[in-house]
């Protein structure tokens, strides 16, 4: 059985190959392969307020300690960038060489990483990316985020967003969404995803996943 989620909000952005999205607490940052740029968009107005050059953009991004962590290059390295200037602050090799990092999300517990060619999501420490936890999710992952109590991962080919309890490995009913979801993020109320079919950022709401108090805690716990 599958449940369907309606679109709450669409944000068209000037992009030909959306590959990443993350919520900073103020803006949605999105990564785009064709232009080799990261953009910051105000979700209320839809205005792109900043564009940052990032050569070799190749996948998802997340916010880490106030900076942007971006997947780059054929070898899927992890590059830390200044969100104001795009200046490189640090870079690390892929923690799983030879596999395609496709989803990133930093949180208070570490950095969750999903792979386009593996059916797992890993939790790694945010300093040296040592493996802390590995969760089997049953499908290659095109994006990953976390909400209170759930690991949320997107499945582009099946047009599904899936929720897993990382403590037990149990999944909720999969959620069918419009388009082809790649990267995904959560702003404390809405789940945003890159729709590879329509080249826009789309938002869905999943009632029962969060409460107002949980949303406040999520904002405090962001990395």
Biggest beta sheet summary: 5 strands, mixed
Please, how many helices?
Answer: 1
| Sequence of secondary-structure elements | EEEEEEEEEEEEEEEEEEEEEH
Query: Uncertain runs with pLDDT below 50, 5 residues or more?
Result: 211-221
Molecular shape: globular
Strand order in space, largest sheet:
1-18-17-16-15
- Compute the CA-based radius of gyration: 16 Å
> Which structural category fits the helices and strands?
mainly beta
Rounded mean pLDDT score: 89
Characterization of this structure:
Helix content is 4%, strand content 50%. It has one helix at residues 212-221; strands at residues 3-4, 7-12, 18-23, 28-32, 37-41, 48-53, 57-64, 67-72, 77-81, 88-92, 101-107, 110-115, 120-124, 131-136, 143-147, 150-155, 160-164, 175-176, 181-186, 191-195, 200-204. The protein is mainly β and 223 residues long. It is globular, with a radius of gyration of 16 Å. It is built from 1 helix and 21 strands. The chain has a 5-stranded mixed β-sheet, with no helix packed on it. A hairpin with a 4-residue loop joins β16 and β17 (160-164).
Summarize the topology.
Blueprint: E1 3-4, E2 7-12, E3 18-23, E4 28-32, E5 37-41, E6 48-53, E7 57-64, E8 67-72, E9 77-81, E10 88-92, E11 101-107, E12 110-115, E13 120-124, E14 131-136, E15 143-147, E16 150-155, E17 160-164, E18 175-176, E19 181-186, E20 191-195, E21 200-204, H1 212-221
Parallel strand pairs: 1-18
Antiparallel strand pairs: 2-21, 3-4, 4-5, 5-6, 7-8, 8-9, 9-10, 11-12, 12-13, 13-14, 15-16, 16-17, 17-18, 19-20, 20-21
């Amino acid at each position: 059985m599958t449940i369907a989620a309606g679109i709450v909000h669409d944000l068209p952005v000037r992009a030909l190959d959306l590959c990443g999205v993350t919520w900073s607490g103020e803006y949605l940052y999105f990564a785009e392969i064709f232009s080799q740029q990261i953009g910051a968009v105000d979700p209320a107005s839809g205005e792109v307020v900043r564009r940052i050059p990032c050569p070799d953009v190749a996948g998802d991004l997340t916010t880490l300690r106030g900076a942007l962590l971006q997947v780059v290059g054929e070898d899927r390295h992890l590059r830390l960038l200044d969100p104001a200037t795009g200046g490189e602050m640090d870079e690390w090799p892929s923690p799983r060489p030879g596999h395609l990092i496709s989803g990133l999300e930093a949180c208070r517990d570490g950095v969750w990483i999903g792979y386009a060619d593996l059916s797992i999501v890993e939790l790694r420490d945010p300093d040296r990316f040592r493996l802390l936890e590995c969760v089997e999710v049953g499908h290659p992952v095109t994006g990953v985020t976390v909400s209170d109590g759930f690991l949320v991962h997107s499945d582009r080919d099946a047009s599904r967003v899936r929720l897993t309890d990382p403590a037990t490995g149990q999944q909720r009913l999969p959620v069918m969404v419009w388009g082809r979801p790649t990267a995904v993020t959560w702003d404390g109320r809405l789940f945003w995803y890159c729709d590879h079919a329509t080249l826009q950022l789309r938002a869905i709401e999943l009632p029962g996943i969060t409460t107002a108090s949980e949303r406040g805690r999520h904002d405090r716990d962001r990395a």
